[in-house]
Amino acid sequence: MTSFHSSHSQKAAPSPAPRLGAATDEFFAEPGSPPVEWHVLDGLTPYPDALAAMEARVGAIADGRADEAVILLEHPPLYTAGTGAQDGDLLDRRFPVFSAGRGGQYTYHGPGQRVAYVLLDLKRRRQDVRAFVAALEAWIIATLAEFHVAGERREDRVGVWVRRPERPIALDGTTAEDKIAAIGIRVRRWVTFHGISLNVDPDLSHFSGIVPCGIRGHGVTSLADLGILVSMPEVDALLRRKFEAVFGETRAFAGDATSR
After folding, report:
1. 5 annotated among ligand-binding-site residues
2. Binding site annotation covers 8?
3. Tens of pLDDT along 82-129?
């Protein structure tokens, strides 16, 4: 996931400023808004089920029938194709391929990767898609910092990157770097869906069937690959705490087996 797709009737005004100029550490809802509902799903969720649940919830949020939500889950091994996916970037159809409807190109999801689908109403916050993407990046970077991992943004590449100075320099003479977290969103009626994926301990060889996010010349990494062995509940707890620092209060969904 590397980009976003907007399908609301109004479009955010284009900005001539560099992408990194949209950096923001706060993206709060207006005063009096209810807390964001926080879901943590057990097991592996089939991608079509997650997509259907997002579609239904986005409609309910837009209509004022449901509160904003974040859904944390893992998928079985699969590839998703964003609206900008190129046929040549699918190298090996070793896993099921799904059309995602979000922005960006091909990405991989699978066990050991924490996916967070972020369903927020920008009408209650800020009708600025660039600032929303920047806030997602700030959320991930703050979470990684708790593990002493220096995540970084890039002007020409959405997502969060980690420098790998121990590896040979890149062909362009720059320090090697790997992507540790991807971002791909869609916006409908000013409600966001899809979201982020953070590599905790996935099988990194599974990324070899695609050109991840259409970006050649850079690799992928994970917390485990960086020597940081943590459980998914540990990651979830930090994600929630850092989410609240950027986006505001959450409340656990009572129906989740792992609600806390």
Report:
1. no
2. no
3. 887 788 889 899 999 998 888 777 899 999 999 999 999 999 999 999
